[in-house]
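Section: Multi-chain targets

For targets with more than one molecule, the full set of components is provided together so that the structure can be written out for the assembly as a whole rather than chain by chain. Components appear in the order listed by the source. The example entry contains two components.
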Amino acid sequence: MYGYVRPAMDRLSGEERELFQAAYCGLCRAMGRRYGQWSRVLLNYDFTFLAILLSPATDRSCRRCPAVCFQARWGLEGDKALDLAADCTVLLAWWQLQDSVADDSPLGGLPSRLLSQTLRRAYRTAAAARPAFDAAVQAQLARLAALERAGCASLDQPADAFAQLLAGVAEEVEDPVGRRVLCQLFYHLGRWVYLADAADDLAKDAARGRYNPLIGRFGLGDGRWTPEAKEVLGRTMDLSIRQMAAAFELWDFGPWAGIIRATLYQGLYAVGHSVLEGDFHKRRPRRGRKEQI
Amino acid sequence: MKDPYEVLHISSTASDEEVKKAYRELARKYHPDNYHDNPLADLAQEKMKEINEAYATINRMREGRSGGAAASSGYDRGYSSHSSDPMLQQARAAVARGNIAYAERLLDEARERSAEWYFLKGGICFRRGWMDEALRYIQTACQMEPGNQEYRQALEMLQGSGYRPSKYDVYSTNCGGLEMCCAQLACMSGGCYICPCFCI
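Its structure, encoded as tokens over all components, is:
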């Protein structure tokens, strides 16, 4: 989860922008409360979207935030769904950190290793709170690692492992219909994120000789895109976005509907294009991440 | 029974034209084409039924007619089966029931890989969420039998833009995500609900 999932901000009303910020701040507070201040560094837009999809409540409270010079910020409060999103954030981020530690060179992997040490306790607490999800994440990541070792040339197979992993979050949802809708939505969200990340890392992975499904699928050993590869990848990412949108329309997301709509009907297309064109990181906001939402 | 106006998200004072517009927008959203081979197709069907009933009820209330116009409006299109090979026919039925593992086993056992085999394999991949492989299988089926309407319709569905709320333009990752795609305008202006569907 790398911060790709964001709404088209120009589509949001003033109230929806405040709600989006409240979700971001609410998840940040929930992580701080449950896992200590260090865990807050794991927060990004993807996990905020997870919290939005899971959270039925919009009760907010205003507090001062150290990340923005102790300015007052509204954040969601006391919601079980926020706790679930916080737990899933820690577990997903932890296992991704372990992956980085294993993949990177001793020196290159140093930041991941240090962060990993810092968050070990947070991981243990989260794993104790959600043992089934922790086991599912480990099983899917092991599957993904096996596919990587085998140099799998399919896009769908490794993407399926990551998609199944994220779909596992929905298993924690109590309502049976909501669980089915979210399972499908999370599956394609995971698939889309995996493919966006593969596209983002193509040049880097090719240069370092690391696994990237796009290299095998399109023969991009030199890390350079071909027009055909971009076209096909863009189309398959579109199909996942459409599946997410179709699932979204079957469940009442209440006050969050506008934000989700702005993400699924516009935001993800814009981010996907930006990633494929290689300017996603160039478009990073100049101001602090918290301030810009 | 729910208030039919609430189902269509309109007030009871809405004009006939507004009722029709609301119905058409919702019918476009929940049309079977948008949920074909989707694990949530049954939920969309329930929504569609609810919308059709609400529209028919409002029409009855307003015009004193018996029977609803909406129920026969053509949105409830059924799915047909065209297979000649008994094993492929069985696989079709299994996909329609959502028994993907069984359908896949049947296809794996098939000796001959006909255009229909690729078409069905594409349907299985689609249902599973493996969109890249679904598209490749359907493309192969179309190449093997270019004149087959069913395969061509499935390919068009995969390449179409799907439902969008009226406020949103047609976006795509390749077209920039910020501008309307010329290639997809035809689909949008015709309304994707009239596009042919993926018949298994």
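The radius of gyration of chain A is 18 Å.
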